Amino acid sequence: MIIAPSSSILACATCMADKGSLIGQAQGFAILFMLIVLAFMFACAACIVYTMVRRQRTHSQLEATA
Fold this sequence. Notes:
Keywords: Cell projection, Cilium, Flagellum, Membrane, Transmembrane, Transmembrane helix. This protein is an all-alpha fold. It is built from two helices and no strands.
């Protein structure tokens, strides 16, 4: 195990970004953008599942009447 002096241990910019700095603001907007993209992808996946369920129900009803 490597032991480093406490003065050389620095936190990453994600943990210790200054709220007023441009880097901190950019990181905040990057996280928001990532959440928006993930929400869009989950909504698309939910729509696909809903469409498949609706088609299956329609198909089952058509087979029951035939």
